[in-house]
Amino acid sequence: MKVDGKHFRSIWLEPDGWSVGAIDQRRLPHEFFVARLTNVAEAGEAIRSMLVRGAPLIGATAAYGVALAMHADASDAALDLACKMLVATRPTAINLKWALDEMTRTLRPLPPSVRVDAAYERANEIADEDVAINREIGRHGLALIEAIAATRGPGEPVNILTHCNAGWLATVDWGTATAPIYLAHERGVKVHVWVDETRPRNQGASLTAWELGHHGVPHTVIADNTGGHLMQHGMVDLAIVGTDRVTANGDVCNKIGTYLKALAAHDNGVPFYVALPSPTIDFSIDDGIRQIPIEQRAADEVATMSGRTGDGRIETVRVVPEGSPVANYAFDVTPARLVSGLITERGVLRAERAALASSFPERAT
Length: 365
What we know:
This protein is of the alpha/beta class. Helices cover about 40% and strands about 20% of the residues.
C-alpha cells in the first residue's frame, strides 16, 4: 500500500540481499522509522517487542528470522535453535508456527551448503504468498461492500467498523480486514471506516488510522465503547475484523474487545465478518475458548500511554494509580455462532468445520 504516494510493504529483503527491513510499528503514528534486522535474535526481539505485529506479518518475520539464522550458521543445530527461540516469542498467533513449520520442511532435507539460498527463497515466497492471499481476500470482501453500496443514494458511504489493526501493517501488504476497504476505495466506492482506538496498545488509533489516512481513505477514530451505540443508531453497515487464530469449527481469536463488538453486532443485526488468510486456521483445535492460549502482556501497556506533547516531544505518562494491580489479556475468543462469515482467499465461508475443511482440504488433513 501507499504512504503519501510511495509504495511500501511492512517487511522486505534489503538491497544487500541478506538483511531484512521492517517498519518499526512501535514508533507509529508519530515517527516513520525503518529497522534493519541482521540476525535471528533481532528478528525474535522484533516479534516479541511488537516492532512487527499482526499474525501474517509475525509469520513472515519468523521466516526471515530463520533465513538470517541460516546466513550465520546453516547447521541442523542452528535451525533447531532458531525455530525453538522464534516459536516462543508470541504464543497466540498460529501463523508463527505455520511459517516455522514451512521453513523447517523446506530446509531439513537439504545439505547445509544450499540452505542459505533456499531459506531466503522460501521466506520471500511466504511474503509474496501473503500479499497474493490478501489481495484475494480483498476481492471476495469487496463484493460484500459493493452489495451494500448498491442500496445507497448518491454520495452516501458504506460505514464499516474495524477493531485493532488488521491492515497492511499487520500483514506484508493489503491487510486482511482492510483489503476489501482499499479495493472499494480504489474502485470509487464511497466508504467510511469507524476505527476503534483499541486499548491498551491503541493499534486502531495509532496504526489503522495512520495507514488509512496516508492512503486517503475516509475514517473516524472512536473510543472502544462507542461501537455499540453506533450500531444501535444504524451508523454501522458491517463490521470486518482480522484474527490471530481460527479453530476448525470457526471460533475466532482476535485482539481483546472483539467479542464485545460481535455481541453488539449480533444484537443489532449488523453483519460481523472476519477476514483471514488460510495459514491462520488451526485445524488441530475445535474449542477456541478452552484451547487457544491467551497471551497476557505487561501491565505497563495498560497502566501507561505514550503520545506527542504540545511542544512536539514523545512522552509516556501513567494513567493508573501507583499500586493498582493491572491485568492485560491481549486476546479474546468470539464463538463461531456470532460470525456472519469468514472472508478467505477462497471465498466467504460459513464459520463451521465443514465449510473450512471443504475449502482448505490440504490444511484440514
